[in-house]
Design brief:
first zn-finger domain of poly(adp-ribose) polymerase-1, alpha+beta, single chain, three-stranded antiparallel β-sheet
C-alpha cells in the first residue's frame, strides 16, 4: 500500500517527528511500512504532521506529495524543505537548538567539546521506524556537517520556545564557524 496524505479521522495519533498529537481533521502524512510484529505482508502506518514529514522523511513525503490531488496549505514551502532534506542527506537529522547547559558534549562534526552556553543543534537518527538521539553539533559546524546553513526553519519548527533574540543569535552562530 502506498504512503498517504489525508485528514485525521480522530485526534488519537501522535506525530513520529515531534511526538505531538495530530488533531482530528488536520491533514497528515502516513508512511506505510512492513509490520515486523505481524504476519508477513501486513503493514503499519507511521503518522506525521505535514511539516514534520517534510523535515524528517523527505523522500517518502515527496513521493506522496507528487500524487496528492487536494490543495495543501504551504505546499510550496513543504516541498522546498523536503527537497532540501533530500539533497542534503544529513539535514533530516537536525532537530532542536539550544545553548549547551554544560561543557561536556562533543560535536559530532569537529569532535571538539561544545562550550557551556554555546549554541548547539541536536541530532537524531532514523532507525527501525524511530528517531533516536545521537548527539550534537556546534551551530557553526552545520555548514560542514549538513553542507548548508539553511536550517533555521527546521530548527525553529522543532524548537518552538526559541525567542526572536535567540533566533538572531542562532542565525549569527550558523553564519560563523565553530569556536575552535
Amino acid at each position: 500500500m502506498p504512503h498517504v496524505i489525508e485528514r485525521a479521522a480522530t485526534g488519537r495519533a501522535k506525530c513520529r517527528g515531534c511526538s505531538g498529537r495530530i488533531a482530528a481533521g488536520e491533514v497528515r502524512f502516513g508512511e506505510r511500512l512492513p509490520n515486523p510484529f505481524a504476519d508477513e505482508g501486513s503493514e503499519m502506518t507511521h503518522w506525521f504532521h505535514l511539516a514534520c514529514a517534510a523535515f524528517r522523511r523527505p523522500e517518502p513525503f515527496l513521493e506522496t506529495l507528487a500524487g496528492a490531488a487536494d490543495p495543501l496549505a504551504d505546499r510550496d514551502r513543504l516541498e522546498r524543505e523536503a527537497r532540501l532534506g533530500a539533497a542534503h542527506r544529513r539535514l533530516p537529522r537536525l532537530t532542536t537548538a539550544e545553548r549547551a547547559p554544560t561543557g561536556r558534549a562533543t560535536c559530532r562534526s569537529c569532535r571538539e567539546l561544545i562550550e557551556k552556553g554555546a549554541w548547539r543543534i541536536s541530532l537524531v537518527y532514523y532507525e527501525d521506524g524511530r528517531f533516536m538521539p545521537s548527539g550534537f553539533i556546534h551551530a557553526g559546524c552545520a555548514r560542514v556537517y549538513v553542507e548548508t546553513t539553511d536550517v533555521l526553519d527546521r530548527v525553529r519548527h522543532f524548537s518552538p520556545d526559541l525567542s526572536e533574540p535567540d533566533l538572531v543569535d542562532l542565525r549569527a552562530a550558523l553564519a560563523g564557524s565553530h569556536p575552535a
